[in-house]
Amino acid sequence: MQLFTLLVPAVLVSDSFSATFRPTRDGARHSEALEALGKQAAHPRKTAQDCGLTHTVGGAMKLNERSVAHYATCDSPTDHAGFLRKRVERHHHHTHHHHATSYQRRWFVLKGNLLFYFEERESREPMGLVVLEGCTVELCEAAEEFAFAIRFDDAGARAYVLVADGQAAMEAWVKAISRASFDYMRVVVRELEKQLEEACKSLAACRNSPRRSSSSGRKRHLSNPALQPLQEKPTILENGYSTWGSGGSVPGGTTCPDRDGGHVKPPPLPPRRRSAAGSTAVSPAMPESPVSPDTACFSKLHSWYGQEIVVLRREWQERQKRGHP
Amino acid sequence: MGPWGLQRGGGRRGPARPPAEKAAEILMRLPKKGSVLKKRLVKLVVNFLFYFRTDEAEPIGALLLEHCRIAKEEENVFSISFIEEPERKYCFECDSEEQCREWIEALKRASYEFMRRSLIFYRNEIQKMTGKDPLEQFGISEEARFQLGTRKPESPGLG
């Protein structure tokens, strides 16, 4: 496997912790150097395992390159892919001389916050990788039609100038890259986490209608819509349920799924990743979900619901015996 | 549009520099034969784990944390290995079980793939509960990467 170019923006590695150490050399040079020297590194690998790119500090910044290449070429979701012409960057001291800019056509693959590029579409390993954190994407049609540039905060870091085949392709790439950062995903995930929690809370209210709660073969004794008396017994039910607006019917717009699909509380942790050992436990509630939830958490919720239903039924039946008030 | 909307001038700016999520001095051993535990400053930033000699400002190495397995080993120790080479383990010895647990939790969630799955999960749940697609407000509901069933058939063990 050959060494490949890696551009890791210095923003990723130098932050407040730098203050603890000796003053660093210019962070900008760091990322540019990584890349430049990566290209020059035609020497054979130092070791069979950790192969790396040399940079100006001396020694090698290792990367789990084999795994990275594997990830680049495996079946995991590709967020965007296509041919782009990549401007060839000369060594910087040549830029003072006038020379023709040339472009090379490469196959680009965007996975998450990683932009890989390959010599050919069929290449088994990437030539390079750009880590897309903290980057800006700009159109630069002055250079070429359908050209755009990926720039980083580091003043010295090179920009990647890429040229698409047409307007649509260019727009698609710019959009994809500008939303590719890990941080952006994190913002969206946190927002959805919050929304789910809020949806659960309002579900807790309508969940008190036992008609909604029965599933998996339980008898529907409790589907009597006129169940206002239930509201008088808050003790075992989840906090925060509200009174019915109109005699037991569900507040407009909110669907209350059956028991399997809803929870009073969202799972306390985001679902754990599957272990590489290949455990494929998927909650039966979500057959299409690739996520395997924390099963301990879900079974706790299910048994809690089971208790709730049992108590509700019992109270309803007792009320029936006493005769409805 | 979410927080990363179009800026004046046409450039789309990504988020500002992401801080390290987690950093600590931890004993680390590479999966090389004869490798010994060495004290390293280990920094988790997005889906990369950088490691530094403790008195240096530039990392000696980085691990991309996609398709990896984080496992508890013996006391205070966890390992990182990658699915195509599960026996090659990067080992980390922490100061305490608690620190070990914290790092395992953080690392397990540190991949883009994990976040993608979480997003799809939450989206699906919210949609079931409210009938609405929460991604519409972000203008990203049509993106392929957020669709259920987007994943191609996986080879066994892909996480």
From TrEMBL, chain B:
It comes from the Eukaryota. SUPFAM superfamilies: PH domain-like. Pfam families: PH (PF00169). InterPro entries: Boi1/Boi2-like, PH-like_dom_sf, PH_domain. Coiled coil: none annotated. GO terms for cellular component: cytosol; early endosome; recycling endosome; trans-Golgi network. One of its GO terms (biological process) is receptor recycling. Residues 19-112 form the PH domain. CDD domains: PH_PLEKHJ1. Transmembrane segments: none annotated. This is Pleckstrin homology domain-containing family J member 1. It comes from Columba livia (Rock dove).
